[in-house]
UniProtKB/TrEMBL annotation:
<keyword id="KW-0805">Transcription regulation</keyword>
<dbReference type="GO" id="GO:0051775">
    <property type="term" value="P:response to redox state"/>
</dbReference>
<dbReference type="InterPro" id="IPR022876">
    <property type="entry name" value="Tscrpt_rep_Rex"/>
</dbReference>
<dbReference type="GO" id="GO:0003677">
    <property type="term" value="F:DNA binding"/>
</dbReference>
<feature type="region of interest" description="Disordered">
    <location>
        <begin position="1"/>
        <end position="45"/>
    </location>
</feature>
<dbReference type="InterPro" id="IPR036388">
    <property type="entry name" value="WH-like_DNA-bd_sf"/>
</dbReference>
<keyword id="KW-0804">Transcription</keyword>
<feature type="binding site">
    <location>
        <begin position="145"/>
        <end position="150"/>
    </location>
    <ligand>
        <name>NAD(+)</name>
    </ligand>
</feature>
<comment type="function">
    <text>Modulates transcription in response to changes in cellular NADH/NAD(+) redox state.</text>
</comment>
<dbReference type="InterPro" id="IPR036390">
    <property type="entry name" value="WH_DNA-bd_sf"/>
</dbReference>
<comment type="similarity">
    <text>Belongs to the transcriptional regulatory Rex family.</text>
</comment>
<dbReference type="GO" id="GO:0005737">
    <property type="term" value="C:cytoplasm"/>
</dbReference>
<comment type="subunit">
    <text>Homodimer.</text>
</comment>
<dbReference type="InterPro" id="IPR036291">
    <property type="entry name" value="NAD(P)-bd_dom_sf"/>
</dbReference>
<feature type="domain" description="CoA-binding">
    <location>
        <begin position="134"/>
        <end position="235"/>
    </location>
</feature>
<feature type="compositionally biased region" description="Low complexity">
    <location>
        <begin position="23"/>
        <end position="34"/>
    </location>
</feature>
<keyword id="KW-0238">DNA-binding</keyword>
Amino acid sequence: MTGDGRAAAPRAAGNSPRRRTARAATPERAARVTPDADNAPTAEIPAVSEVEDTAVRAKQIPEAAVARLAVYLRVLSGLAEQGATTVSSEELSASAGVNSAKLRKDLSYLGSYGTRGVGYEVRVLVSQIERILGLTRQHRVAVVGIGNLGHALANYGGFPGRGFPVEALFDTDPDLIGIPVGGIPVSHLEEIPRICAERQISVGIIATPPTAAQSVCDRLVTGGVQCVLNFAPVVLRVPAHVEVRKVDLAVELQILSFHVARRADHAEAVARNRGNPGLPGAGLPTDNGGTGDGRNGAGTDGGLGMVVR
């Protein structure tokens, strides 16, 4: 009813007030909503595994430093056997035959910087070096060529304790086939691929004559061997995924001969100059390895006894 008594006209359905109802969020509508950056959920960052971290560090280490790490490990293992718990950089570097600055640089590749006034924890450092050198798992070894050197390698008791158990021996000598050496029967070269694959050999040591080394290496690679230690005086051709280290004892002896000869020549030059005090530079050391008189850098060459300026 209206105020004057007349009936109110009914409202059209289309003009009735609409109730506000919540609308379902559509993908388009949701896309227009800007989330609260402070309260928005964040994706969990996956942690870098120890294996991944070790792999990254290993790629950053120069090969020369890797060789020194192996020396540090040998020294540290000896200290651990003696009951030592810590070692200073000076003590470790002196035992390893390197200067302390180089040692600290090498160990920094491991993420180990030591503690001032305390040094390095022996047990922790051993663990770090073993991990970076891949010594946390065993590497099974095959020796090919059971001559004098091969016999010595097969019987060496230090390999298993360092993670390199000898698991297979090979030769072509009929008198050796089937004969145990170091507790392992010798097999024929033709068996290399099969036995290496079955026993999961990862390291092959070649101690054969140079003429047989390449064919032996090929068989080892076919059997799945990934690393080769070559004592034969020959350069081996291998796939890119195979690592080769060459040990040439004759070359090492020749290098030693060079150093002995250089020292002998130097000593002879010094003795000759001392016998003739009139020569410039008699008896005084210079930074070029010879002798000098300290004037304007003049001196004698350590190997030839000639005056150089």
